[in-house]
Design a protein that fits this description.
Layout (H helix, E strand, L loop, with lengths): L1 E3 L7 E2 L6 H9 L12 E3 L8 H13 L1 H8 L11
Antiparallel strand pairs: 1-2, 1-3
Length: about 80
């Protein structure tokens, strides 16, 4: 999960990737997802999965779970596994 660096209206974005550094660089250069263009982004949460299927399922659940996204955005530190 990445967060825009903007004091007025900070946004979050959840996505799947195999290369986090490259993906953030794409978002910050304006070539990432359409909804991320024109903003500067920083990584605030990541989790590694052994297979793409489980990663995409977790991505979908996190995208839909606004409560957990807000907790992450506000700096809540999760222990062990994230319950999403």
């Amino acid at each position: 999960m990445i967060q825009s660096i903007n004091n007025n209206n900070s946004k979050t974005y959840v996505g799947y990737t195999t290369d986090i550094k490259k993906r953030i660089k794409l978002h910050n250069s304006g070539r990432g997802a359409k909804s991320t263009r024109g903003k500067t982004w920083k990584l605030i949460f990541s989790k590694k999965y052994n297979d793409k299927s489980n990663a995409l399922k977790a991505e979908y659940r996190l995208k839909k779970n606004i409560k957990v996204r807000k907790m992450i955005k506000n700096g809540y530190k999760f222990k062990n596994n994230l319950c999403i």
